[in-house]
């Protein structure tokens, strides 16, 4: 039986494969990081739909307001939404992490058109499925985004929570941050905003959101073996999709 105490062991092989992925050693130049960011931007963007799905399921988003669910889970999700959707950039200006990432892409010279075309289409009323199908986006990226958004829009809270908590936590190792710091010391490297984004992400995740997310999963799954099994299954799928995304990006370098 899968429980909160065994789920990390079940997911460990996939996480090790991600954290030791050869992609990171290929990110050794501005040009390589430009390519990486063009495709990684989709993961930065679709993560927010998982967060907002949990906010809709675990808090009251309708009027009149009434208490919904666990106060602990409400606090976790509202804090993460605040951090992801309403943070500040290096100049103190309000910005979501998606918008901050776009700033970093512009600064480093990465191609923002694929992701901004997708988001603009959705803003203009096109369904996400149609916008994704119509976009000039590699199939590998489409597959990654479809999994995230289908989960966010159709799955129950414990499955969305499993993908969020176990499948989409910070998967960029210290190696990558060290590489970016090294590039920042080079003349005309233009990676200051990317470095700020990475360090800010680590700072906000910190020691608080992790334990709170685990508490949320305990509340969502409780003693239900079925819920734990489903959450684990979808977390494994999320990690597998991330490995395939990393494989695709590495192949482009």
Broad shape: globular
Q: Biggest sheet: strands side by side, in what order?
A: 1-2
| Number of discrete helical segments | 13
- The total count of strands amounts to 2
- Please describe the biggest sheet, giving its number of strands, its sense, and whether it closes into a barrel: 2 strands, antiparallel
Low-confidence stretches: none
User: What class would the helix/strand composition place it in?
Assistant: mainly alpha
Q: What share of the residues does DSSP label as strand, in percent?
A: under 5%
State Rg: 18 Å
Distance between the termini: 41 Å
Helix content: over 70%
Helix/strand order: HHHHEEHHHHHHHHH
Mean of residue pLDDT? 90
Description:
This protein has 253 residues and is an all-alpha fold. It has helices at 7-19, 23-26, 30-58, 71-85, 97-108, 113-123, 128-134, 139-154, 157-167, 174-184, 192-205, 209-221, 225-252, and strands spanning 87-88, 94-95. It has a two-stranded antiparallel ribbon. A hairpin with a 5-residue loop joins strand 1 (87-88) and strand 2 (94-95).
